[in-house]
Amino acid sequence: MIKDLWNVPNVVSLLRLALIPGFVWLVAAGEHGWAGVLLGVIGATDWVDGYLARRLDQVTEIGKFLDPLADRIAVIVAVIAGLASGVLPSWFAITLIVREALMAVGAAYGWSKGVTRLDVRWIGKAATMAVYMSVGFFYIGRGFDVDAVVAAAYVFGLPGLILYYVVGIQYFGDMKKAISVAN
User: How far is the C-alpha of 96 from the C-alpha of 182, rounded, in Å?
Assistant: First the structure.
């Protein structure tokens, strides 16, 4: 399993995870615009690890775990930091936090029932991308004081939130099926 960790796509996922403390440091320093740029880099490289895994025939179980882990951690950290720093509207941040908490509880329950993974859905990737863009745009727009970018944050954020909850419901159904198969 350790040898599976050190392939090109997994290193990309690990690098994405390694950039998160830099993002936190920028937020703590009040550099919200640059934090948003770094979040954009973390989010934009989300597709790179999956593309490389398929292209290089290096798909691994640990990679299937690392990619969504990097997404979840980056989003959770960005949302909590955005809520704490006032970069994100509180209703937006709280709605995202509630969804992530529900997903974590569902994943823990599924794991306790023998489910080790669910397949990622396209709509989940689209929702994650929209949320990443929205959160990043809030940081960039508010950090660099650009109203048009803040407006873009809402344009991506509202549909992203809706898709996030829709796919959460779909994953709930997937989890129910996976639990019945595991037991």
Answer: 30
